[in-house]
Amino acid sequence: MPDLFIPMDTARFTNYHRNIVAQGILNRFTLGYIEAHRESVKSRYATFDTFNADFQVSEKMMDELLKLAEEEKLEFKEEEYQKSASLISLQIKALIARDLFDMNEYYQVLNADNESLKKAIVLLSNPKEYLRILSGK
Known about the structure:
- The chain is mostly helical.
- It has one domain.
- It has helices spanning 15-22, 25-44, 48-54, 59-71, 78-100, 103-111, 115-124, 127-135.
- The radius of gyration is 18 Å and the shape is flat.
């Protein structure tokens, strides 16, 4: 058992999401997007900090992803898509960050949504609270 239990929200991990990832649709979409928009994205977001703060995955991008999934004969599941949309969007942004910058920036985008990591950073920044949790008091 870990020193501190942080429940993981698994509701976003649907079969539809898994299939988009497993069939390579998410990667193909992201690579196609970057090929078509690299220069405009790079000029608008010259630094990772600017990209991370300001880049948003648009509804149009999500619609294009869904179109690609349909072309790949992946059956659309509205309810599952709605549960996974925020995770899919985050992964698209992270993959674009990886392509434009590097792997470090990929993880920075993904980890912005990592509750365990956020809690660990808070605890490690507060030694007294960390020691209290370790002691079980």
